[in-house]
Amino acid sequence: MKINELKNDNVVILELEGRLDSSSLSDIESRLPGLIASGEQNILLDFSRLDYINSAGLRVLILAGKQLRKTGGRIVLCSMQEYIKEVFDISGFSNFFKILGSQSEALEAFR
Amino acid sequence: MHNSVRFEITNQLSELSTIARVVSEFAAAQGLSSKGLYIINLVLDEIVTNIISYGFKDDRPHSIGIELGLEGPILSMEVTDDGHPFSIADAPGINVGLPLDERPIGGLGCHLVRKMMDEVHYERRAGCNHLRLTKNLDNLGPGSRGCSIHGGLD
Lengths: 111, 154
Known about the structure:
The structure holds 2 protein chains of 2 kinds. By secondary structure, chain A is an alpha/beta fold. Chain A contains 4 helices and 5 strands; from the N terminus they run E-E-H-E-H-E-H-E-H. In chain A, helix 1 packs parallel to helix 2. Chain B has helices at residues 16-30, 34-54, 108-116; strands at residues 4-10, 63-71, 74-81, 119-125, 128-136.
């Protein structure tokens, strides 16, 4: 998986590309806690180029969500494939994360 | 056109890429949509990762058999391994309604497999686990079998 990291005002944007599974999650698994530990409060994950996520990938997100909850920050997700959105619904993760249609809508949600 | 494929992998996580390749070829040959492809990949990924991570107590190599078939809209998958007895069909469920702070980390893979398949049937036979799963791909929503590419249903 490739991660493209951008910054827009006080929002860190991570654009994920490819597969987020057991063999490819080490980057995001270390990057998210690192960003949160360095004081980032607003994290936007753009899924528009993410083709695949499994339960190991979902676990990384829930851990980051728990960590951010403690610091008062939040994660917003955007541009998810419909079949990935369904996995979020089945997992109950749609209740934990705001999921929006586009990166601009998601940036707006932090304002 | 072959509508079934059978292959074997060894109990190493690097073999997940073999599964992804075979499943992708199968989905292309059967004209499945990206959603159909995703479901097969995800379900096999969760089952096989579980078997490789927890199924064997020794360090010997083991083979895991995988069979995929499509009859009309019905997708069937069978996974066979000689690890210790474990049924994903009977694994404890998770409460998806719990708030984030109380949500346990484990159990999600089994939950996804059961929710995404119509039927999950487990049998222990001759020292092996046989897990058979079926899913009616017509229930995935419009275009789920990739039929829209050809301009209509069958």
